[in-house]
Each structure stands twice: as structure tokens, then as C-alpha cells.
């Protein structure tokens, strides 16, 4: 089953703002061009729209998914228990490194969000870029 890429955000500096863009370039082994997390283990972070919407319903809120501070928002594809799987987004391949654990910044965005995200991979996943290229909002997302 395929999903789609709903949003792309670039974080220019640690603890900095998340800039929405409609396209971005990924570089194998590095991450997203212009993003603060170049070449680290968590080169790209990904959250699922469905998971975010469930969290907002649980907490009776409607804050933007930018509060999660992830790079990519996907929909129509589950991220739970996907460690070591390879995800294709457009022409790019990403290897899922594991679950992204929520930090204290989540409670700064919305009290209780950090605890709610701990269940069922609610914080999303982090990945390394295996095959780079251009991503665009609307690209198809699937598992290899």
C-alpha cells in the first residue's frame, strides 16, 4: 500500500524554527540539504499524519504537526515497528533507524504530548538517506 508525502520541513539550526518547503534535496549518507542534522544518525525524521491526528484527539487539541519538529509528514503508511525497513519517497530511499523518542520540547508545545507520544511509536521514526535525490510534497511513499 502506498502513501504520500504531505509536508517537508527544514530545521536550519538546533532548537530553531521549522521552515515549510514544497521540495528538498536529500544527499546519501548526509541528510537533507540545509537541515541542521547533516550526517548524523538521525539524518531525517518522519511522522505519520494518522498518528499525529490520533495524538491530537487524545489530548483534545489541534496544534500543528510542526510542533513535533520532524522533517517529513507522511500519510497512508504506518511507521510502527519499521526499524531497518527501507522507505521510498519519490526517487529517494531511506533506511529506518528506529523510533524517534519524544523529548521535553513536546510538553513545551502541548502539556502531556511527550507522554502520549511514547505509545505505539507516536513520535515517528528517524532514518538515514541511502539514495538521495529530490523530494516534493505529493510524492508517493512506499516500502521497498
Please tell me about this protein's structure.
- There is one protein chain.
- 14% of the residues lie in helices and 39% in strands.
- The protein is mostly beta strands and 144 residues long.
- It has one domain: PK beta-barrel domain-like (M1 Pyruvate Kinase, Domain 3, Beta Barrel).
- The N and C termini lie close together (11 Å).
- The mean pLDDT is 93.
What are the key terms here?
144 residues, mainly beta, M1 Pyruvate Kinase, Domain 3, 3-stranded antiparallel β-sheet
What coarse outline follows from CA principal-axis ratios? globular
Instruction: List the strand order in the largest sheet.
Output: 1-6-5-9-8-7-11
Average predicted confidence as pLDDT: 93
CATH secondary-structure class: Mainly Beta
Give me the CATH superfamily.
Answer: PK beta-barrel domain-like
Characterize the largest beta sheet: strand count, sense, and whether it forms a barrel: 7 strands, mixed, barrel
Give helix % range: 10-25%
Q: How would you summarize the topology of this molecule?
A:
Blueprint: E1 3-11, E2 18-21, E3 23-27, E4 31-32, E5 44-48, H1 49-58, E6 72-75, E7 86-89, E8 92-99, H2 105-109, H3 113-117, E9 125-131, E10 133-136, E11 140-143
Parallel strand pairs: 5-6
Antiparallel strand pairs: 1-2, 1-6, 1-11, 3-4, 3-10, 5-9, 7-8, 7-11, 8-9
